[in-house]
Amino acid sequence: MAIVKIPQQKLEALTQICRSHHNQAGELINVLHAAQQLFGYLPAEVQEVIANELNISLAKVYGVVTFYSFFTMLPKGEHPISVCMGTACYVRGAEKVLDEFRRLLKINIGETTPDGRFSLSCLRCVGACGLAPVVMVGDRVFGRVSPDKVPDIIHEFAPEYTV
């Protein structure tokens, strides 16, 4: 795994996040949320700074990061794509939609395009079963998505992409 060098400005922002939570171990989840907002993900180096600032073990920080699905140790794309694979979406063709994103972006689940524009993941349910199959790009929800709509979704966020 590559070592991430934290730029000084972001390191100062991270220590300020910890201080704003009074460097209390009980604030770990809040600190992790803020850190992930700052960095986009939680690499080992960020976790190590948080552990030191909150005076807790790196193993405890890592345990929380890996337990909660919201946290990620891998960088996400500028436009994270999540395909719902809940029962209603799956039955209505979400797997084919997912396969089309994989084919067009040339990435697998959990990966990010080489240019950092898109990342691809699955999720269980977004609570929009009446719109199945559902795709989220960032906070934006797309309903009744079929494989033939996938290129339009990609182009909406990156018109220069050739798919």
From TrEMBL:
It comes from the Bacteria. GO terms for molecular function: 2 iron, 2 sulfur cluster binding; metal ion binding; oxidoreductase activity. Keywords: 2Fe-2S, Iron, Iron-sulfur, Metal-binding. Binds 1 [2Fe-2S] cluster. Its cofactor is [2Fe-2S] cluster. [2Fe-2S] cluster binds at C84, C89, C125, C129. Pfam families: 2Fe-2S_thioredx (PF01257). SUPFAM superfamilies: Thioredoxin-like. Belongs to the complex I 24 kDa subunit family. PANTHER family: NADH-QUINONE OXIDOREDUCTASE, E SUBUNIT (PTHR43342), POTENTIAL NAD-REDUCING HYDROGENASE SUBUNIT (PTHR43342:SF2). This is NADP-reducing hydrogenase subunit HndA. It comes from Breznakibacter xylanolyticus.
